[in-house]
Amino acid sequence: MCVLVLNLQNENIHFFPIPKRPLSEILDEPQYHTFCLDPDACYNGQLTIDISSDNMLGAGGFKTAHPGWLTLFAAPDSGLGSCPREKVAVKRPFHKIFPPGSSKAPGKYVIRQYAAADELPKLFREANVLYWAGPLLEFAYDYIDHCIARSTDPPPFTIPRLHFVKAGLTLSYSQAPSDPNQKSKGCSPRAGFLLEELIGDDDGRNFIKYIHNMDCNPLLDVDEFGYDIATFLACTQHIQYVKTGGLAFISDYQGDAEILTDPQVLTHPQGKDIFGDGNIEVKVSTFQTKHVCNDYCTWSGFGLERLPAGSAEEPEASQ
């Protein structure tokens, strides 16, 4: 049930945390290949959303983000929702409505949410991207830590330590179950939300776009804040690309100096696209000629082959 008071929208929800699993486990166990709703890991609760446009956290190419507060009735010991009225970012996919006869110029459109039947598959894809992105990043860190431990000389740089947001998929129902510990049966969700921990809440941390989805190199200039992190993340792409046999790597790296959000997992054209509307397959197949190796990549302890950065123009890809 949805209750609107001024600009605060209250939703009765079922919350499904996105689990953290090692990449090896995801690859080896077929039941873990994609994010699925686990009834045994479902939490009932209430979500309050500030839907005012003035307080909106932002609107990207595919999703809006509003501030919200999550309260779970039987909260987990850790993770998102472990604290009552935890501040969260509430994200939903949207589509653009342009006035009849107008050109599709930037800014000349109205944002509309999808119907639940169209919204939920998109949310599942977004959740699945986060489900894979976390293990892919940890996979790169495991390789880095292993190489450093084996090296006789320490690297001439400090390794930035980042992780992806804690997140979960939330379904809202028209009527709350009478028993908070009892899951609703036989009713369809009226809406869905992707909930994430709030980045940079009241602490002045900068939100930075490190690497664009259309590139495999840092988006920042060398004199800009965050450039060192951006070059390190480009190195993690190199590691992911090489160690997956050229099949996949994370792109659209963005967040602050500790927490990352809204990634894309770019896959080879021969693979199955399960990673969302931002996936650009051509980027994976041309990674070797577009990635420019940096000081992280070329440290001998990592044992990475230097990739030749090409200059030829690449086929244009639409998002």
Explain what you see.
It contains six helices and 15 strands. It starts with a strand and ends in a 21-residue tail after the last helix. The longest helix has 35 residues. The strands form four sheets. The chain has a six-stranded antiparallel beta barrel. The protein has a two-stranded parallel ribbon with strand order 8-14. Strands 11-13 form a two-stranded antiparallel sheet. The protein has two domains: 188 residues, Phosphorylase Kinase, domain 1 (2-Layer Sandwich), CATH 3.30.200; 95 residues, Alpha-Beta Barrel (Protein kinase-like fold). By secondary structure, the protein is α+β, with helices and mostly antiparallel strands. It is globular. The C terminus is likely disordered. The chain is 22% helix and 25% strand. β1 and β2 form a beta hairpin. α2 packs across α3. Keywords: Kinase, Serine/threonine-protein kinase, Transferase. One of its GO terms (molecular function) is protein serine/threonine kinase activity. It comes from Suillus discolor.
Quick synopsis:
The chain has about 325 residues and is α+β, with helices and mostly antiparallel strands. Helices cover about 20% and strands about 25% of the residues. Strands 2-3-5-6-10-9 form a six-stranded antiparallel barrel.
